[in-house]
């Protein structure tokens, strides 16, 4: 794409620290992160306006020497003030705008306009298939393609019965009725819950959900026939974490699971593969997606399946949906929804004794969880104000039948994980 000047960041320690890259982007300059095993010829092809060296190094790497001989300004992060402080940011801004004469041409408005026209040209009248998950990445991809070639796009949304309260209805309303996309809605709740009957082991549940998702898609693909493009909501951290440096893979990315295997398509389309998550959200806003969709917190593919301990029966999932809804409502009411990375409820398989209207009860315990994180690799539990916990606790026990005890999860990751299963 030709709209932008490029800054190349060479990560000498190969650990893929994304912080400096995000800071450069926030200063409206496009940057590319490469590893310590990058080839100087490839860097040259990008015609960088400057190079930033980051990470620890013994100074003897061939790439470090080669970069310094390129004839473009080089900033060494090791000689800078802390990038998270004001002095570090001022130094970075000075390097970008004064030393490298950046124009500040990297904005999400320019990106959106350019991407839409590029997609329009590429797609023409060909057929595009996009699996909507409800997540922000696939939503923004679909919205970009819809702007570019509305007639070409078919979206498929599978309701596996493990979504949160009202979530599937919202997706159909926003993407179908409001945005006018050609949306195929598949209600597969009975199919998934049928397969999951009697299954309690966490990994077995995950496996069944993943496989069934592919089977549902396989059936749908037979009806749709072959398509030219399959959309994948890959984002830049997926690419980086799949390994840019000599230290290699951090994690492999599976945004659409095994879908490429069951769909007859010619090419993968990845409209947001150059963007960080916050940039994807900005593009979503730019092209008119509703705020609730753009700001959606991370939600796992297997949905409530990993938040409902024990068997996944509809009546248990309904209890969880109601509890989760109240908790989220109380957090939003107190204005904490924008301050927290992820917050949700978990239904345990433990029952305990309680009393309601002077009668003994024997009902479920639910757990509430709220965590702060930067990349989901580590997380800390949020010190939620007692007022929020109190209001949520009162409402949950008043409004949801089947729950008589509520606990707050006070563990961080590690040693626990964010999800319970
Ligand atoms: P854990 O539980 O591993 O979660 O600490 C880290 C982050 O990943 C999300 N998560 C998933 N996301 N498919 C997904 O798309 C999954 O199977 C899955 N499991 C966990 C979790 O919500 C958290 O943000």
Mean pLDDT: 93
Write the CATH homologous superfamily of the largest domain: HUPs
Uncertain residue ranges: none
The spatial strand order of the largest sheet comes to 7-6-5-8-9
- Give the helix/strand class: alpha/beta
Any idea how many domains? 3
The coarse overall form would be globular
Which small compounds were modeled alongside the protein? xanthosine-5'-monophosphate
> Which percent range describes the beta-strand content?
15-25%
Tally of DSSP β-strands: 13
The CATH class assignment of the largest domain is Alpha Beta
Sheet bearing the most strands, described? 5 strands, parallel
| Series of H and E elements | EHEHEHEHHEHEHEHHEHHEHHHEEEHE
* CATH topology term of the largest domain: Rossmann fold
Helix content: 25-40%
Distance linking N and C termini:
41 Å
C-alpha-based Rg, rounded = 24 Å
CATH architecture of the largest domain: 3-Layer(aba) Sandwich
Total helical segments: 15
Brief sketch in words of this structure:
By secondary structure, the protein is α/β, with parallel strands linked by helices. 39% of the residues lie in helices and 20% in strands. The chain is globular and about 80 Å long.
Describe the protein.
By secondary structure, this protein is α/β, with parallel strands linked by helices. The chain has three domains: 6-99, 3-Layer(aba) Sandwich (Rossmann fold); 108-294, HUPs (Rossmann fold); 307-408, GMP Synthetase, Chain A, domain 3, CATH 3.30.300. It is 39% helix and 20% strand. The protein is built from 15 helices and 13 strands. It has helices at residues 19-26, 40-45, 62-68, 86-99, 108-123, 136-148, 167-178, 189-196, 202-224, 236-241, 259-262, 277-286, 291-294, 314-333, 386-399, and strands at residues 6-11, 30-34, 50-54, 74-76, 128-132, 153-159, 183-187, 227-231, 265-269, 342-356, 359-372, 380-381, 403-408. The strands form three sheets. The chain has a five-stranded parallel beta sheet, with helices on both faces. Helix 5 crosses helix 12. The chain is globular. The mean pLDDT is 93. It binds xanthosine-5'-monophosphate. Xanthosine-5'-monophosphate binds at residues 298, 300-302, 306, 342, 376, 413, 417-419.
């Amino acid at each position: 794409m030709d709209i932008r000047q490029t800054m190349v960041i060479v990560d000498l320690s190969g650990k893929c620290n994304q912080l400096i890259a995000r800071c450069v982007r926030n200063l409206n300059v496009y940057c590319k992160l490469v590893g310590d095993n990058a080839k100087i010829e490839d860097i040259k092809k990008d015609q960088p306006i400057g190079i930033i060296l980051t990470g620890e190094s013994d100074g003897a790497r061939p790439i470090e020497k080669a970069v310094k001989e390129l004839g473009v300004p080089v900033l060494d992060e090791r000689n800078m003030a802390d990038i998270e402080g004001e002095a570090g940011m001022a130094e970075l801004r000075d390097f970008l705008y004064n030393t490298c004469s950046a124009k500040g041409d990297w904005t999400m408005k320019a990106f959106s306009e350019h991407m839409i026209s590029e997609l329009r040209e590429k797609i023409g009248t060909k057929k595009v298939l996009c699996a909507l998950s409800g997540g922000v990445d696939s939503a923004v991809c679909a919205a970009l393609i819809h702007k570019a070639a509305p007639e070409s796009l078919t979206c498929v949304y599978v309701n596996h019965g493990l979504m949160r309260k009202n979530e599937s209805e919202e997706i159909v309303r926003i993407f179908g009725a409001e945005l006018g996309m050609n949306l195929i809605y598949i209600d597969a709740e009975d199919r998934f819950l049928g397969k999951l009957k009697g299954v309690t082991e966490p990994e077995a549940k995950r496996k069944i959900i993943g496989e069934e998702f592919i089977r549902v898609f396989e059936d749908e693909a037979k009806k749709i026939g072959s398509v030219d493009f399959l959309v994948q909501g890959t984002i830049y951290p997926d690419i980086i974490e799949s390994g840019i440096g000599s230290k290699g893979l951090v994690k492999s990315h599976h945004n659409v699971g095994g879908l490429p295997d069951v769909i007859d398509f010619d090419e993968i389309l990845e409209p947001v593969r150059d963007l960080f998550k916050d940039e994807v959200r900005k593009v979503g806003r730019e092209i008119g997606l509703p705020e609730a969709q753009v700001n959606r917190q991370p939600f796992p593919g297997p949905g409530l399946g990993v938040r409902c301990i024990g068997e996944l029966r509809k009546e248990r999932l309904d209890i969880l949906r109601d509890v989760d809804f109240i908790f989220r409502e109380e957090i939003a009411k107190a204005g904490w929804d924008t301050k927290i990375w992820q917050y949700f409820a978990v239904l345990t398989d433990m029952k305990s004794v309680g009393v309601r209207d002077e009668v003994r009860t024997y009902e479920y315990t639910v757990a509430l969880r709220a965590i702060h994180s930067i990349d989901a690799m580590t997380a800390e539990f949020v010190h939620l104000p007692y007022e929020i916990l109190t209001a949520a606790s009162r409402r949950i026990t008043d409004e949801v039948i089947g729950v008589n005890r509520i606990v707050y999860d006070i563990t961080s990751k590690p040693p626990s994980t964010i999800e319970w299963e």
